[in-house]
Amino acid sequence: xxLHRLDITAFGPFGGSQTVDFGALSAAGLFxxxxxxxxxxxxxxxxxxxxxxxxxxxxxxxxxxTTLRSDHAAAGTRTQVTLDLTVAGRxxxxxxxxxxxxxxxxxxxxxxxxxxxxxxxxxxxxxxWKDLSRSHQEIGEEITQLxxxxxxxxxxxxxxxxxxxxxxxxxxxxxxxKLLGRLFDxxxxxxxxxxxxxxxxxxxxxxxxxxxxxxxxxxxMQQAAGDTMELPELAPGEPGLAxxxxxxxxxxxxxxREQLTVARCRLTAAExxxxxxxxxxxxxxxxxxxxxxSAEARERAERxxxxxxxxxxxxxxxxxxxxxxxxxxxxxxxxxxDAAHRRAAAAEARARAELPAEFADAxxxxxxxxxxxxxxxxxxxxxxxxxxxxxxxxxxxxxxxxRQERADDDMLQEAEAWLAGWETARxxxxxxxxxxxxxxxxxxxxxxxxxxxRQRLAAARVRDSLAADTEEARRRALASxxxxxxxxxxWLDLKEQRLNGIAxxxxxxxxxxxxxxxxxxTEHPAPARKVAGHVDREAEERALGDHQTxxxxxxxxxxxxxxxxxxxxxxxxxxxxTPTAQLADEAGELEAELARARRxxxxxHAAQQELHRAEQERERRLxxxxxxxxxxxxxxxxxxxxxxxxxxLEAELAxxxxxxxxVAARAAQLERRAALLTxxxDAARAAEDCAERLxxxxxxxxxxxxxxxxxxxxxxxxxxxxxxAHRELQRRLDAWHTEEAAVRAVLAEADTAAAAGQxxxxxxxxxxxxxxxxxxxxxxxxxRDAADRRCAExxxxxxSAVTGMRRLAPLREEYDRVARLATLTAGTSADNERxxxxxxxxxxxRLEQVAAAATVRxxxxxxxxxxxxxxxxxxxxxxxxxxxxxxxxxxxxxxDTATLSGGETFFASLALALGLADVVxxxxxxxxxxxxxxxxxxxxxxxxxxxEVLDVLxxxxxxxxxxxIVSHVADLRRRxxxxxxxxxxxxxxxxxxxxxx
Length: 997
Hints:
Elements: E1 2-11, E2 14-20, H1 22-27, E3 30-34, H2 41-53, E4 80-87, E5 90-97, E6 100-103, E7 110-113, E8 116-123, E9 128-133, H3 136-147, H4 151-157, E10 159-160, H5 164-170, H6 173-184, H7 187-224, H8 241-306, H9 308-324, H10 328-353, H11 364-379, H12 382-420, H13 422-500, H14 502-507, H15 537-575, H16 580-601, H17 604-657, H18 663-708, H19 713-719, H20 723-748, H21 750-756, H22 763-826, H23 838-861, E11 866-871, E12 883-888, E13 893-896, H24 902-923, E14 931-935, H25 943-955, E15 962-966, H26 970-975, E16 978-983, E17 990-994
Parallel strand pairs: 3-15, 3-16, 10-14, 14-15
Antiparallel strand pairs: 1-2, 1-4, 4-5, 5-8, 6-7, 8-9, 11-12, 12-13, 16-17
Helix pairs in contact: 5-24, 6-23, 7-8, 7-22, 8-20, 8-21, 8-22, 9-19, 9-20, 10-18, 11-18, 12-17, 13-15, 13-16, 13-17, 17-18, 23-24
């Protein structure tokens, strides 16, 4: 990573905009960042860290955002930090703008603008910067990935902070471990310790859970065994619990099987006793049933004897009914004939009631003749009916003609009114068309004028822009010319100073016995010495390079000024001297006129369409008027013809309808009379037929009753039984015969007769004996079932316990293995002699690398006296692994770093910081760190040690590094030529670059 340029605006103590050219400072290899206390030396480093990570170093993190803003900044100036750097072969530019409370654009008060970030990359092929991202998170991840280190690592490795490494040198193992843990990101090893501990707790919980399940099975087995099983006195997790549970389960199963055998024997004896009791009860119940059956049969026989008279009467009634059944068809025929005769007589009476009085005494034949005469008269009215329907049609046609005449009159009036206004409407429509056509022509002319006006306006705006660019280019060309002149004067001054001190430069190459390049002498008694501020060849060449660079910059700026002036002349030639505002007004007026003309021209098509529709309407109305005149002529002849037809039809209808209101009414009268006469004739003939059938049915009924043995038909009808009475009487007779047969069958049974001769059966005693045997059987069966269930439950729970023990075995092995690893990595195991945690072990290896890398530089700084070594001894009762000692070559003894003096502590801390930077760089993937900053501590060194430390820092240039020293030690200003001075003032601090190429 190499820094090129840093731009700061309104940041920390810097009220305005400041630029730090790290490229020029890095060319010297070693440069000094100095200034009075509080000027802002450390703020420059804060700005670098803030640009990269969006935050300042840890000790100054409080108040991120708005408090980074300078109190000296103007209200409208926003805080901004821009860093130009090269990392991993890529040229990047990072810009950070923290949150800003700016004044509101309207009204009073302030509003908060959010933080902004921008990452750009320089494209060498295109020669331009391209945007990569504006996301805070994406930029942070990209920078962290490219640098390969976090902000904490960067602040410890690149920005070596004030006093941090001195504290690190003297710190105890715990504090040293915290710092190394942040730098080397050993959190993953701590996570391994944590994960192992969590896994140990998890497996231990699972083992305890398995043991608890075994104990639960044991408790259930104890309940199933009836509390005869003894539980092991062991807690979950204790060894031997599973085997003790299985042993107790085996004893409980053996006891349960013995109890099952005893219960089965008792059940067999109870089943035999119960079978004997059931057989005895069955015999007693059968004797009791037969005795009850015999008694019930005797009672039924007595009841039958009592009802013998009723049975005889029912039998005689059934016989009379059977005889009357032979007369039933004749009775039904007579009743049907009588009903038909009554219905026919009623129908005849109703039909005669509808006839006029003159037909009341007429017979069936007379009524039929009158009906035929009415029908003949009705047929004669058919011609009159057709005439009546034609008269209706004639009246309708006459009314339609009148309505059409009125409609034509209305249409003619409307057409005349519309045609009367045509002569005024057509010129108005033609005027609208002419106006729209003129607007279209005007729009074409305005469009031709508008485009040149727009071109002049665009040229005028370019002219105004180029005028400002010309002034800026002129100022830059003038500044470049002045800078070139100053660079030339500086180069000539250095050249003259070198020529004045060339003798000392030549004398530096003299050697005893070697001839002088000037005089040839081999003795050099008084060679010239270099004085303070001597200018060597490298300084002169750098000044010459600066002069040439300034000349090139002046040439570029002058060429740029010429190009801008040419562009301004071309724009002025096209736009003229007319002000841009006037050209904009003229173009606006043309655009407004063009818009109005186009709007008026857009009405042309609508006006043409409207004129076309109006002409079509005129033709239609003229055609309608001609058609109406033709219809009026034809209506006169039609009206005369209809009037003649109406008069003839009315005369014919008056003769046909007689006294009726109309022919239809007369026809309706005749139709009704014919229908009534026909109905009355039919009813009279039907009544005569029914009377004949009734007389014949009476004769047949009298003959049937005599043959059946009845004196009169009425007697036969009274003896006749309906279906319900017949079924009821038959049911009573059948029930009598069935009961009589059943009683005789029971009394004839041998078993029943034998039981009747025995003593009464004692059913209560037999049932009590059977109930007692049944109770004993149920109790034996329940005992057997309980013993069977107990055995099955114990077998099931024992199998479950065996399965749980087998499943728990690998889990217990895993727990033993994990617990051993967890205690080993946590440093609490007896196998871990030094009580080192895993993270401490890794950090100890890193600290050993850091001590080795730091020793290389510490030996040079201390003239070979001191060496840093890593110690893994335990400190007091704490854990070992992060000890740091110094070996004194003068005494040959190893001692604690806290015994070093102030100056020794500084250069030991510096060597440790540089060694740590190398190790962290290698750990980060070998990212090259070309720029380092060391903050304070040089004031504690004597001159010789300071020279040795500076030699070590200067040696870093061998790896093409540049080192910035942040200090206000005055002696460093004489020893280090490249300097960045921070000057503070009442309006804020400023930076000045001195002695850099």
